[in-house]
Amino acid sequence: MSKTAVLVIAHGSPDPDWLALVESAVQQCRILLPIRVAYLGGVEGRSIHDEWERLEAAGARRIVVVPLFATAGSNHVGEIRSMLGLDAWPSGETELVPVETRARVLWCPPLEDHPVVEHIVAQRIAELSSNPAHESLLLVGHGSDLPGCHERWEKLLLRLTFRLQNRYSFSAAGYATLRPDTLREQARLLAEKGEVIVLPLFVSQGYFTRRAIPDRLQGLSYRYEGSAYLPHPLIAEWITQSIRMALVNTQRSVYEYGREKAVEMGR
Fold first, then answer.
1. What percentage of the chain's residues is helix, strand, coil (to nearest 5)?
2. 137: three-class secondary structure by DSSP
């Protein structure tokens, strides 16, 4: 096996369709390295611990970690970094279990507002919008109640909203989160400016896109198709780009045996 391997980490779900979309995206990656998918939960035998042990047992000495999450504002991204020894261990009680990492960890950033994300969202706008001057755009993210994570979500949503409004000139544009729950209030405010187009910023379709968002908007008038980032083929391209960037950077902080060190990358 190659001394370099890749671990894509996703949230996980008991829904087999959700998992199939993630697995399909990883299979489409144009990369000649061993690549595995680990899940935070919902998939027996596919935890971060399980997949990390498999890669190390097969000979991996450095592992590129690609967190398939919308933003670093996700509570889970911080948990993953702590499990891998990249961040300090959480204070207080926690159900997290640290991963014993012998291989070097090459961390990639989550999706955030990568051009791929803006491209996917723009395509969905084109499918739902007919006259932006008489419509309002509402982006919806999961959000977080945790300090630090909440601010990251706010900044991401603000950046995307600003760029898309500049691009399409909607009558109005805004954003909302499910945590804290601001969705219905924002939808009602934007409805005063034009017909509301609601776009969820989620990695894959599931409970939040199919139930949580429609339930909160019940009784309101809006356009909503419910698509997530997956199964768009550009997600596979983003994973591929993330891996390549991690490997070609000339200098990067990585971790070996739990200690930070600077190494030459791509050699």
1. 40, 20, 40
2. strand
CATH architecture of the domain with range 115-223: 3-Layer(aba) Sandwich (3.40)
Neighbours of 207 (CB within 10 A): 13
Please name which of 25, 126, 252, 250 lies closest in space to residue 8, comparing C-alpha atoms.
Answer: 25
Helix (H, G, I), strand (E, B) or coil at 38: strand
Count Cα neighbours of 226 within 13 Å in the Cβ-side half-sphere. 12
Q: 């776009």: which residue's tokens?
A: 199
Which residue, 87, 80, 91, 72, is CA-closest to 52? 80
Q: What's the predicted TM-score (pTM) here?
A: 0.90
Token couple for 93: 């009680």
CATH 3.40.50.1400 for domain 4-111+232-264: yes
Residue 258: closest CA among 102, 97, 137, 139: 102
Q: Which of 245, 250, 247, 248 is nearest to 262 (CA)?
A: 250
- pLDDT tens, position by position, 78-128: 999 999 999 999 877 788 899 999 999 999 999 999 999 999 999 999 999
Outline which parts of the chain fall under CATH 3.40.50.1400.
4-111+232-264, 115-223
